[in-house]
Amino acid sequence: MLDYVNASVISSMEGVIGIKTYFVKDKRPFISFNRHFKEIFQSKYPEEYNFEPGIHAIRAFDSIIVITNALNSIRGNNRSPSMLLKSILLSNFTSLSGRIHFQSRQLWQSPLFSIVNVIGKSYKELGFWSSKFGFTENNKSINDDGSDDNMEALEDLVTWTGNLKHTPKGRVMLTNTEAMRIGVPSKTAFEKFVKVEAISNSTEKRYSGFCIDVFEEVLKIVQKKYPIRVDYFPYDGTYEGLIDEVFYKTFDAAIGDITILANRSKYVEFTQPFIESRLTMIVTAKPEAQKAWMFLRPFTKEMWVFTSAILFYTVFIVWLLERQSNPEFEGPWRNQLATALWFTYSSLFFTQRERVHSNYTRVVVLVWLFVVLALNSSYTANLSSMLTVSRLESSVTNVEWLRRNNAKVGCDADSFIGDYLVNNLKFKMDNLKKIHSEYDYPSELQTSNITAAFLELPYEKAFLLENCNGYIATELPDRFGGFGFVFQKDSPIAASVSEAILTLSENEKLKQLEAQWFTPSKECLASQTTITNDNLNWQSFWGLYAFSGITSTICCLLFFIHRFYQRRHQVKEGYSTTNHEDLSIELVKLVDDQLDGHSNMATNNQLLEPVVISDVSSYRNPHLS
Fold first, then answer.
1. Three state DSSP letters for 307-359
2. Sheet with 17-21: strands ordered across
3. Which of 140, 157, 174 is the last residue of a domain?
């Protein structure tokens, strides 16, 4: 159909690859037909611009020749439709479109197509293809043996859009003679991201900032695939208006600190984000007040509970192991418990003076003293840090406190954050104050015109670079899509830019740019304070607790096993035979004696006197009598 398309339309199809039905044009029959066709067609349709016969005219002429020959071959008056069809199917000659010969009521010769490439207002033939012979660069190489060359052999002959010689990855937006129109926000609150300045004695602008540097690095990678050029155009409006300009094709793309949001993605194409974005809250800081219960703060509540639990467990084990062999544990159970508690508690300060008699107790106390040493050192160091290092605390507790007290809050005037605070965090519109410059935030916070400022995470970093004293930033759980570049919907350039951003992230070029623009000064690094939880928790000491508890338990079990075998040996000396019931009773009696203290204290870990039990029924617990 290219023969019938207007030349202006063909010029807009540059780089397109298509097919045409091939027929021979350099033989005498076609030359004669072509001359007569032009004369007749031009006389009847002088307003047309193309008088060359196409494949449809050629096939129409061949059809007339076939029918004429078929009618002439029928003799007499017997010219029925069936006879005419039979005569047509017997045709066998070469005409303008090729050989006319039917087999099974179909043309025997498969059609031959020429592969064409549109260039300018015309096209060139790259090669040929037929269903029987496949691809070939020359129609003369087509023979009965066939040729099945691959289309890749023709790739080097193709001229793509923009006069490219390599295969493009997708639809190319612009040619190398055109420059992409890039919209840049000129009215930004934080100049570290985008800054547009007028050049003296010139109508041109100077563009700088973190986002500009990132795009320039991306452009270097993309230009290896596409010979594109860009022109920057400042846009003095809101971010929503800039995105609309891309949607309405005023700009081919927009770059800057533009946040990726779901409602924006419906109209434009975003690239991969090149920096993270989430909601943060900045408030003024005040010195941390000293509290009466400061001495409890080095440990968390859970830490105190676990420490108390392991302390009382150790007290119980020491009392259980020492009460029958140690004279200091004599007397009523209250005195015994107080002695064990004092012995274990005083070990916290290494002031215990009581002696231990059992080797099992010595092992328990040795492990416990190691735990005490670790706890004492950690507690002392943490408490000293809390009392000597100056700390700041936030003047605002949380977002709910701001809503409940109808506090005034500030946000960027041209950002979506204002709508987000109203629609998602349920702030009242009257309590919102729009801030137009990063330099206005400190004065608004210090004069209490606003209680808190809500910024995206990149802006928070930029703010604290310039205001590192007297402010505390809190990261909120609200996340956004990050900063990305904006392109028209379904733009193929967007995919290449996203790929380039990932390349910069992987080779750490993005990290280098962030360090270049957002590394705080030495003074700020020294003075910055953040809200951190310095309380030590039990998870840092669970290994020590477990070791102490397991050691105490094992020593207790070994002690009872040892005493059990002592009692069993005494029973064997008193009787020649024993039974399982006797041993069970002895074990019960051993535990009962250990808990009640009914043993001879003078023996002091010596073997107990043999106990003779003649009847199981005669044994009773003394407390049950």
1. HHHHHHHHHHHHHHHHCCCCHHHCCCHHHHHHHHHHHHHHHHHCCCCCCCCCH
2. 17-21, 113-119, 122-130, 134-136
3. 157
- Give the pair of three-digit tokens for residue 259: 């946040």
Same domain, 226 and 311: no
Indicate whether 610 belongs to any domain.
yes
- Alpha helices, DSSP H only, in 519-610? 522-527, 542-574, 580-596
- pLDDT tier at 73 (50, 70, 90 boundaries)? confident
* 450/444 Cα distance (integer angstroms): 6
Find the helix packing angle between 542-574 and 301-322, rounded to 10°: 20
Structure tokens at 169: 């990855």
Greatest mean pLDDT range, 14-18, 153-157, 332-336: 14-18
Asked whether residue 20 is assigned to any structural domain, the reply reads: yes
Task: Specify the CATH number for the domain of residue 263.
Answer: 3.40.190.10
Contact yes or no for 133/146 (Cβ under 8 A): yes
Question: Is residue 322 assigned to a domain?
Answer: yes
The tokens of 172 are what? Answer: 């190319």
The owner of tokens 């977002």 is: 399
CA dist 610 and 570 (Å) reads: 5
Provide the domain limits for residue 11: 2-157
Least confident of 209-223, 378-392, 440-454, 579-593: 579-593
Q: Map tokens 């590394």 to a residue.
A: 519
Residue with tokens 């927009």: 254
- How confident is the model over 249-282, as pLDDT tens digits? 999 999 999 999 999 999 999 999 999 999 999 9
Written as six digits, the tokens of 410 are 């500030």
Give the residue among 430, 433, 529 at the shortest CA–CA distance from 474.
529
**Residue 42 near residue 51, CB atoms below 8 Å:** yes
Same domain, 149 and 171: no
Main-chain phi, psi angles of 100, to 5 degrees: -105, 105
Q: Among 464, 488, 519, give the residue marking a domain's end.
A: 519
